[in-house]
Hints:
Distance between the termini: 49 Å
Radius of gyration: 19 Å
Structural class: alpha+beta
Bound molecules: the ligand Nc1nc2c(c(=O)[nH]1)N[C@H]1C(S)=C(S)[C@@H](COP(=O)(O)O)O[C@H]1N2, molybdenum atom
Amino acid sequence: MALPRLPRQPKPIHQTLPGDIQERTPPGQFVTEKFPVLTVGPTPEIDLTSWRLQVYGLVERELDLNWQEFIGLPPITVTADFHCVTQWSRLNNTWEGVAFTTLVNIVKPLTNACHVMVYCYGDYSVNIDLKSLMEDDVVLAYRHDGQDLDPDHGGPLRLVVPKRYGWKSAKWVHSLELIGEERLGFWEERGYHPRGDPWLEERYTME
Ligand SMILES: Nc1nc2c(c(=O)[nH]1)N[C@H]1C(S)=C(S)[C@@H](COP(=O)(O)O)O[C@H]1N2
Ligand SMILES: [Mo]
């Protein structure tokens, strides 16, 4: 007689993976090889000839760059894991772009600047404290895994903040506003955690 078939339980991958990957996967996350697209609304159409990046607010010197000027800034490459609050993690992403600290060195924040609002084409925003953005893996990225950043993944330019949940890695960035108190971005206004550290499982403001 055939043995009764047990229902197959979907297994959280991170519980079965060997040390290194397991250690790199925050609590409640599952590793995926795919790179899902997560966007509220459609991918905005962006014309590189009118594209700008502006940095303003509590800075000594405001910045307003066109595409040629932006890609003329010294590039960096960062390899980092990416953790979406909807529980997928994609490990070993290679991002190429400009370090956030490079922009900071140009604009020189005033001493009372402590938070940043990031604004995007298509009307999305996030808030991040300035100190978290000063980490050396924070990059304004135009390439991913050796390819120009796909429009669905934030091309021509997205922010990548590996130590925060993915919603903070704002796609299609056009401005950074340095401010002196915390304000809330699109998801943070809707109950997602203002900081969003995946290692502390800071998913929602109220549990
Ligand atoms: N402008 C914008 N940026 C965004 C989003 C968005 O909806 N609009 N979604 C965020 C979320 S929830 C995640 S997990 C990542 C996903 O990036 P991906 O679509 O490249 O995987 O982008 C973030 N950046
Ligand atoms: Mo996400």
